[in-house]
Specification:
α2 packs antiparallel against α3 and α5 packs antiparallel against α6. This protein is an all-alpha fold. It has 6 helices and no strands.
Length: 166
């Protein structure tokens, strides 16, 4: 990525949706550009799968905790099919609403990723200040450092959310 962004003769505006594969095409020809596009597609598939699994587990935990039993019914293959069908529906809806534009989807993914970091760090802070001193004495993390990282992530989220409102 650093090599691509430092290249002096690339028109970033013209290739904003295929910058790295286009650079690979310039370096080693069509076969290398196609190979890199395939590798990028596989990485994107893995990222979507990770998000899918994580959201399914989160919904399952919330359903268990708050008694939403209709969400956690399983079929004969022990699959939480209601959650999976719901996720598939909403993910597909997002793709339809954004018309599949890569830049919009990538920005939404970035905002969501930073938001999850903020939520996790905020939860860690709450835990460390409420119960962390007594329950987890063998793990000594600096609460001030955690607070500073939380504030940094929160400011990044505020910036992204205000500049990418969708």
């Amino acid at each position: 990525t650093a090599l691509v962004l430092s290249h002096p003769h690339l028109d970033f505006e013209e290739h904003k949706n295929n910058l790295i594969p286009y650079y690979a095409l310039l370096l080693n020809g069509d076969w290398f550009g196609a190979l890199l596009a395939v590798v990028a597609s596989i990485a994107l598939i893995m990222a979507v799968n990770t998000a899918y699994v994580a959201s399914s587990e989160l919904i399952e935990r919330v359903a268990h905790r708050y008694g939403f039993d209709f969400l956690i019914k399983i079929n004969r293959w022990d699959s939480l099919y209601v959650i999976h069908i719901g996720n598939a529906f909403f993910y597909s809806l997002i793709i339809l609403v954004t018309s599949g534009q890569q830049s919009v989807l990538a920005e939404m993914y970035a905002v969501g990723l930073v938001a999850s970091f903020v939520i996790n760090m905020g939860s860690l802070l709450l835990y460390r200040y409420q119960k962390g001193k007594t329950e987890a004495q063998e793990y000594t993390t600096n609460r001030l450092g955690t607070l500073l990282i939380f504030l940094l992530l929160l400011s990044c989220f505020a910036y992204l959310a205000s500049h990418r409102v969708y």
